[in-house]
Amino acid sequence: MVTRVHIPVQNSAEEVEVALDQLPRDASDILDILKAEQAPLDIWLIIAREYFKQGKIEQFRQILEEGSSPEIDEYYADVKYERIAILNALAAFHTYLARCERSRKDEHFRTATQYYNRASRIDKDEPSTYIGKGQLCLAKREFSQAGEYFNIVLGGDQKNVSALVGQACVEFNRGELIYGEASRVHYLESLNFYKRALQAYPHCPAVVRFGIGLCRYKLGQFEKARQAFQRVLQLDPENVDALVAIGIMELHTSEADGIRKGMEKMMKAFEIYPYCGMALNYLANHFFFTGQHFLVEQLTETALAVCNHRLMKSHSYYNLARSYHSKGDFEKAGRYYMASVKEIEKPQEFVLPFYGLGQVQLKLGDFRSSLSNFEKVLEVYPENCETLKAVGHIYVQLGQHEKALETLRKASRIDPKDAQAFLEVGELLMSTDAGASLESLKTAQNLLKRKHEEVPIELLNDIGVLYFERGDFELADQTFKEALGKGVWQLVMDGKVGSSSMDLGAFIVQYRDMKLFHQLEKDGISLDLPWDKVTTLFNYARLLEELHHAEKASIMYRLILFKYPDYLDAYLRLAALSKARNDIQQSFDLIADALKVNDKCPNTLSLLGNLELKSDDWVKAKDTFRAAKDATDGKDSYTTLLLGNWNYFAALRSEKRGPKLEATHLEKAKELFTKVLVLRPGNLYAANGAGIILAEKGHFDVSKDIFTQVQEAASGSIFVQIPDVWINLAHVYFAQGHFALAVKMYQNCLRKYYYNTDTQVLLYLARTHYEAEQWQDCKKTLLRAIHLAPSNYTLRFDAGVAMQKFSASTLQKAKRSADEIRSTVAELKNAVRVFSHLSAASSYHSHGFDEKKIETHVEYCKHLLDAAKVHCEVAEREEQQTRQRLEAARQATLAEEARRKAEEQKKFQLERRKQEDELKKVMEQEEHFERVKEQWKTTGSTPASKRKDRSVLEDEEGGNGDRKRRRGGKRKRKEKRQKKRYEDEEDDMEDEHEEVDARENRGRENAQDHLLAAGLEDSDAEDDMAETISSISRRRRAWSESEDDQPSGRRPAASPADERENSAGLDDSDAEIDDEPKSNRRRRSGGNVFDDDEED
Amino acid sequence: MKLSGLKSVENAHDDSIWACAWVPATENRPALLLTGSLDETVRLWRPDALETFWPSPSTGHCLGVVSVAAHPSGAVAASASLDSFVRVFHVDTNATIGTLEAPPSGVWGMQFDPKGNLLAVAGGSSASVKLWNTSTFELVATLAIPHSEQPRPGDKSGGGGGKFALSVAWSADGRRLACGSMDGTIAVFDVARAKLLHQLEGHFMPVRSLVYSPLDSRVLFSASDDSCVHMYDAEGKSLVSAMSGHASWVLSVDASPDGAAIATGSSDRTVKLWDLGMRAAVQTMSNHGDLVWGVAFRPPGGAGVRAGRLASVSDDKSISLYDYS
């Protein structure tokens, strides 16, 4: 080390000694000496360098600038090398300045270039100038240019260390610019140059070894890299870069020990040089994990202040952002992530801020931006599970289910142990593929269990719901119980509350009564119901309902309401339960409670409307439905369907069916159904409704097609049950005269959906039998219906009519036995009894029949009875006659036989006598011939007279018969007249019956309301379920959505009523036809037939 | 407590079987099962083989037999049909003793009182229970159920709040008579004073079957179309418990002679056995293919017959017999 320089004094042997560590503050002093003594330029250089080392930049500059001034140039014109060295030093200085002072970068670069150019002009082959130019290019990041400069140098001198290092630097930077395999080539190249430099100059500065370390590190040779860094530290224990590098490597071991050591290194580096951005960032990173956010902010702010490197800045911003992110300040976090991202040219450089930004944007609901950021992460790490899940989640939010599914499936494939991915896939599939969804969710559950992690209640809830939907009630029950864990509900499930051991009295059926819970609280039993269990408890209650444990379910719902009085769906379920029990008043009260919570909820309003329908409050119902529709901005198909149904009913309801009104209502209904169908082409209920309207208008074939399709579509799910469509199909068959098919359809429907208990459908069935003239089936069906609905007088009336009709038709038959007539008589007696009971009952029960009409029926039946009695007598007499005739015939044959025998006897005797006589005659032949002849004659006359007698008798009998027949005929005629009158009457009656039917229809509509009610409950149930806050709601929504159309569908069920009316209409026309050509009827009627009969 | 199937007779009748009752044992014969059907006949069966007891089924009913009842002596039984006639006959001979009718009253549920002096008949639309003297077979009393004060919303059963009497049950001590209605209310009468005590509320749908506990004359069970069985304190006028589990209407209920269980038949095609200690269904029999209209426990008594028996009859024309133990 040169500690002092000697400046030779001009023209003497003396020297001025300058101690380098005691250089004057003012460089002018030195300059004066240098100039005065015309000191060699290398001394200028040494002194300038010394100033630089001491950090006296101004002095350094002053000397060098003076040393490169034109006069010096002139003076030292032949001292080439030193002049070049001075220029190069200046240029290098400016290059350095350019690096430090970003703002004046270009200016400095320009100056540096000028100096180098000057140096080149002095000697264009000077290697150091090229090296300087190379460095300048490096600084300007013009790597290929730099490489060329260094190559020129290396061309001259293979072992030029500066050039080698420069070249290594160039290669390293090239490696930094690209990614993947290609970069390895550059790092290897760089490593080679460093190695050559080291070989050429084994004592080269530590930085070369540091370079080797970096290359090794980049090449993934971490152990060798570490060795290199450690060597650097051996050479220079205070080398911050090496400290940081080793620190980073230690930290990356991710072991507690490594992290501790790494942090020690970082701290040391920080102590040595507090402005190393890398160290600051890593320290900040560390304190982020230790949660010392204050330090994080300070460190990163410092780092940002001292550091200009893009990526370092990016890291710093990232650290800051992360700090705010973890504190929940998403706004700021987002801003800093954004700043971090802005520093990055390609996501490959530093991908974490993209992830962070994505997260924050997701949190703030900016899905599109978030998605694009996550996608950038995926560019770098296409198999990163977390990111895939995030992307999948965003797709879900954006409603792109296909993509979401694909992404999440990929995530679950990449990491088959990631429960979260399976969970998301499962949730996603819930609405579309329940089976796969269940599989996926179960996998998630198992994964969590295997890891002994707590299975989230939402997951169990979802699994339970899926089991529930699939009809696996047992498994659903288990799953819900597992989800719910311990709580007061266990007491309810075990029957310890609500059924036994406690005297609850009316609590059981008073759904608004909460006294049980007060009592339980008094008894010190905890009624704790965490909010995250409410949904599951609700679902569990739904399951209990499905398992027909309505009481337990009602207690669960009430528990929910006791803790969360705003839980609307629980009110609605309770109301639906009440309605199912026919406790209408309570149902109204519960709905009123629900309306207090939210008077705009369309579900509540729909249920209210249906209740109003059930209690026959039509006008109110319509208003309520309207309100419900308004509450959903008309977007909800269910309310639209309800209105459609309402209109449909209204069309058929009015007692005097105004054709105009009817048409408007039908048109309106059709419009509403079509509207729903346009919105949701898959809505079965709307399709069913449309089918009904078509049938109503007589387009049976089209409507049949529709009904068949709806029926097929509905057969898939256990939750979509549309018995109505079966009934409607049956109605169409009926209207088209396919009675057998209609019967089958009605019977299947009854059995499949109503446990054979629905009297309305039985009535349809009876009517079909009636039309098909299957009187006995008709009667039996009606008797069944009466047994099911004892107080329904309409059914009795119908049964009476059926029996009457049966009797009449038997009497009109061409051939009938006395037995048949006897049973007819019995039937008529029954009919009379039924009718008279009805008329008697009317005294204290208004059942809507005109007493007079019943009287007429009774009269008619009695008349028929009389007639039948006559017929019966006739038939019996006829039978007797036949018997007699047979007897007579038998006797006649007997007599004949006897006669024949007698004759034979006589003949034989005669023969014998003849022979005897012949003997005699031989003797007295001629004399007695005449006498013998006479004798013969007398013996022969006896049989003849007998025969004659018989014929007389026969004549007499015949006469009798004739007379009788005549008499009979007369009566018959009279009867015929009477009969005609009665038949007319009967027609009237039939018409009346139709009227009754119409009236009945009203009743039936009411019954329909029942149906509808039933439907509605379901819907409510589902709808209800749809209304939850948490993510579960999403899942359940899917579930509910499929169903929410249901109710409406049921409604059309009502349609049967009209269809029936339809048929009634047909009947009317029938009757008319009958009325016109009386002959027709007569052909069928008995009179003629009777006569024929008699003639036989 | 359990049921096990012993015997089923398919096509026991030509059509749906609507009613069943056990005829108590007499000195000469064991207890018999009496069934009534839509085929207008009443038949008598000898357990456990369920062979027919009469050479030919009884006829004389029209429009379907809706209920049958047996006198506690076992000698006499009654059957009623939709044509509102009650036929009373000797069990052993099937000889008719008399035909009862109280027009315009209909006939639905029937039961002889425990002492055998009276036959109570639910009178349908007449909103009353008719009591017939069982020696003279004369109508001795009409217990009327008053109209509800105000019609309930949604009540469509025949307007005006008039009741429709559907089912009857005598308490074990014979002092009380309960009558279930279409609208779900149950009227409780003090028989001695022929007075209505009160009406039990809780059901809002037809109560088709009633039975008192054989052990406790306060306890009454009711089966209703709301698919629940209610247990009432019939004296205290309070609902004690509601037992749900059937999927459809509960058509029939009977209490076991030991008082520990009840059995129910439902239109959901099942028979359920309920443990009254747990107040929960302990067993469900699903051997019927259609509505189960009647369930009946065999009364104790008879020579050496101790085993419990339950019979059920169904719309599927079959009779099933179970061992109850």
Task: Characterize the structure shown.
The complex is a heterodimer of chains A (1096) and B (325). In chain A, α14 (256-272) crosses α15 (277-290), α17 (310-327) packs parallel to α19 and α45 packs antiparallel against α46 (1031-1044). Residues 940-1096 of chain A have low confidence and may be disordered. Chain A is 79% helix and 1% strand. By secondary structure, chain A is an all-alpha fold. Among the domains of chain A are: 308-382, Alpha Horseshoe (Serine Threonine Protein Phosphatase 5, Tetratricopeptide repeat), CATH 1.25.40; 401-485, Tetratricopeptide repeat domain (Serine Threonine Protein Phosphatase 5, Tetratricopeptide repeat, Alpha Horseshoe). Chain B has one domain: Methylamine Dehydrogenase, Chain H (7 Propeller). Chain B has a four-stranded antiparallel sheet, with no helix packed on it. In chain B, strands 2-3-4-5 form a four-stranded antiparallel sheet, with no helix packed on it. Chain B is globular. Residues 153-160 of chain B have low confidence and may be disordered. The chains are: A mainly alpha (1096), B mainly beta (325). At the A-B interface, α30, α32, α42 and α44 of A face β21 of B.
